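Predict the 3D structure for this chain.
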Amino acid sequence: QVQLVESGGGLVQPGGSLRLSCAASGSIFSINVMGWYRQAPGKQRELVATFTSGGSTNYADSVKGRFTISRDNAKNTAYLQMNSLKPEDTAVYYCYVNVRSASNSYSYNYWGQGTQVTVSS
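Done. Predicted structure below.
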């Protein structure tokens, strides 16, 4: 089993910044993919940014140039630096991880509980 602990959401004015963090713990042999998705009211959950074990990153077009994903491998933690925030960035942000279990050879998906980000004046 893997636990994800998210932090960093909140209320910010347009143009402001927030930093989200997500720490993974538990039965982890390796992290294959880790990142963030978001879901706004009445909309489907969508990818925001992810990174892979190989070091590649993937961003939604809507956040390119404004958001940056980074990681601390030693702490199994991912960070999402969000700059130049817009009202349309308002959503619940979910941490996602695909890990290879330390107890068997299988990989599993896990989701965090979500953290609210509200961009409003």
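The mean pLDDT is 96.
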